[in-house]
Amino acid sequence: MSRIDTDTARKVAKLARIAVPEDHLPALAGELSHILGFMEQLGEVDVEGVEPMTSVTPMRLKRRGDAVTEGNMPERILSNAPDAREGFFAVPKVVE
What we know:
By secondary structure, the chain is mainly alpha-helical. It has helices at residues 6-15, 25-43, 74-78; strands spanning 84-85, 88-89. The protein contains three helices and two strands; from the N terminus they run αααββ. Strand 1 (84-85) and strand 2 form a beta hairpin. Helix 1 packs across helix 2 (25-43).
């Protein structure tokens, strides 16, 4: 099992921009070591033939038919826009 020392825990805390008091570093190092140990255990699991999951419940994404529509209805589409000008969506200027 990999062991994390206090210097590595200090470096991880700095990279994560987390202020960890010096007296809490040994506990953080222990927790990080436990996490790495668990990850090593997961790496030993045989997952050959196991399908990846996207959810704990089997679900199918709803799909719509890929059909050509009549289109050419910019007035109807732009009627939903909070601000439309000259046949286009108007958005606030972001870059000056």
